[in-house]
Amino acid sequence: MNKLTTLSLVGLALLSSGCAADLKNLEQFNNSLAAIVAGGQASPMFSQNTMSPNATGAFQSKLAPFSNDSVIAANWESAKPLVEKTVRLAACGVGPFANNGGQDEVEAWKSLGRWTDPDVKSPIVYGIFPLAIWHTQYHSKSSCMSILRTDKWAKPSKNTLAFRVQFVSDASDETVYINYLFRVIDDGTWVFNKAYL
Q1: Calpha distance 10→19 (Å, rounded)
Q2: Which of 28, 69, 83, 137 has a 20 to 30 A CA-CA distance from 101?
Q3: Do the Cβ atoms of 164 and 148 come closer than 8 Å?
Q4: Between helices 3-16 and 20-37, what is the axis angle to 10°?
Q5: Which string of DSSP letters, residue by residue, matches 8-32?
Q6: What does the pLDDT profile of the chain (197 residues) look like in tens digits?
């Protein structure tokens, strides 16, 4: 049997066994990765849940560092707008693909676009952008996660800022930890470098 026939039979078996939805999700995921490799953008628009004004205030206060380190405090003021935007994406990001968190996390990375470190442009090489919602089992995908606390604030180097956020579901009480690293580039602009579980 040649390879084409074998692949056709495997595809037919998957379709007939009730895995058509999984195959479609895998095809969407592969198409998106191919678009990234080719230097293109994904076709669907990335979506986020909306945070209420009360939740926004709590979100901002819980995100601020509790460190007495004057260097971290000084960096926080200039990094704060980008950090808030990035962490809010992790708390509220849903993405364009229902029931496909892996694909949505690739799309989230691409949605950061101009705020991403110019030296780190490809999620294929550096990973994905973790969306807290997709790392819970019972949290509603139609609402944002809250911040329970931030910790592990550090300056790994003179031009970086690192910390960890513990997200919590107000509905299910599930928690997700995500670590972040931001970097100042030569022109003094803060950029997102990486996020990981």
Answers
A1: 11
A2: 83
A3: no
A4: 130
A5: HHHHHHHHHTT-HHHHHHHHHHHHH
A6: 555 444 444 454 544 555 555 545 555 545 554 554 444 444 456 678 898 888 899 999 999 998 788 889 989 999 999 999 999 999 998 877 777 777 778 778 777 878 888 888 665 555 578 999 999 999 998 999 999 999 999 999 999 999 999 999 999 999 999 999 999 999 999 999 999 99
